[in-house]
Amino acid sequence: MAKVTRKKYIKEYRELGDKMFKYCTIPTVSDFAEAFINKNAKAEEKIQNLTQFTGNDRDIKNSVQRRNDNYSEEESKKFMQSVIAANLTDISESGYFYKKLISSCDDMSITTDDCGSLGEEFECPVDEYTFNYKIRNRWVTELNKYVDNYKDLPKKGTIHVRTFLSCKTGHRHFCKKCAGEFRRSYDTVFVPKNIGIYSTLMITEYATQASLDSMNKGVAEKLNKLLEQPIPKVKDLKEAKEKIREIIDQIGDVGVQSRFYEVALLSRWRNNEFVPLATSFLRQEDVLGAFIYQSSPSQFEKLISTGTFKANSMKTRIAFDNY
């Protein structure tokens, strides 16, 4: 670690602190006090940002307003029952959902730097909900940068935002610019090359965490239903992308950005048609990966009767220790 003077350390610390509280939407203790004592609307909104994701608005409000520091036997029993129920049902649903989604998205990756796409069109002003769900951390062509602050958007006019749906690289491989920015921390940006696997983790992590809360049961089932819903026959990929946009609007912002749903739904587009998540992987040319995913007699017969095949799935690459 590089040595710095105390004066410089304090300066950097304060700058970081200012940025953290400027961009952070997680409520602090003072926000709870302002919301429940002074009925502060902005503080209430920050709390809702948290409870919208966790789904336990009532539990948090009850906890804040408690006057007794001892939990009753009834409260303890209710909590234990919710944990047991979650482990037996919702967590298993999340696991099954994860298996289907990860297999469908397995071979999707970021392979190029910039496809040169103009991006998708948005008319300004854009509301903050749309910004957080569909624009934040993405490249805005007119601004010539990735945007993470709502205030950076123009008040009027047309902007174009790079998305997975606008990427010219393909519908299973994408460029870095259309993928957008991904952060490990405030100042650390990285590129998840295996974007299909990364998107699956983003979606199912939310579903699993939400399922742990008794007030938000069935999240994995709901997401599975929306992402797996039957899609009428379409004539080409352009029309398929319009259907994907419709489904993304149905899902809405529940704590996961729309770009991850774009990847999940594009993974269903195989051989010019939408296929179910559960069978999407079986439609690709990696017969060994398909056999690993579904060890059935028919898949084994297909494997041994195939001369050469593409080893482009993560399953096969792991089997060959080449990942």
Question: Could you write a compact summary of the structure shown?
Answer:
The protein is mainly α and 323 residues long. Helices cover 53% and strands 11% of the residues. It has helices spanning 6-23, 29-37, 41-54, 57-64, 73-105, 128-135, 176-179, 195-211, 219-228, 237-251, 258-266, 277-280, 287-293, 297-305, 314-319; strands at 109-112, 120-124, 138-140, 145-147, 157-161, 173-175, 182-185, 188-190, 269-270, 273-274.
Descriptive tags:
single chain, 323 residues, mainly alpha, two-stranded parallel sheet, two-stranded antiparallel sheet, 15 helices, 10 strands
Describe it:
This protein has 323 residues and is mainly alpha-helical. It folds into 4 domains: 57 residues, no CATH class; 113 residues, no CATH class; 81 residues, no CATH class; 35 residues, no CATH class. Helices cover 53% and strands 11% of the residues. The protein contains 15 helices and 10 strands. The protein has a two-stranded parallel sheet. Strands 2-5 form a two-stranded antiparallel ribbon. Strands 3-4 form a two-stranded antiparallel ribbon. A hairpin with a 2-residue loop joins strand 9 and strand 10. The radius of gyration is 23 Å and the shape is globular. 29% of the residues are buried.
Walk me through the topology.
Blueprint: H1 6-23, H2 29-37, H3 41-54, H4 57-64, H5 73-105, E1 109-112, E2 120-124, H6 128-135, E3 138-140, E4 145-147, E5 157-161, E6 173-175, H7 176-179, E7 182-185, E8 188-190, H8 195-211, H9 219-228, H10 237-251, H11 258-266, E9 269-270, E10 273-274, H12 277-280, H13 287-293, H14 297-305, H15 314-319
Parallel strand pairs: 1-6
Antiparallel strand pairs: 2-5, 3-4, 7-8, 9-10
Helix pairs in contact: 2-3, 5-8, 5-9, 8-11, 10-11, 13-14
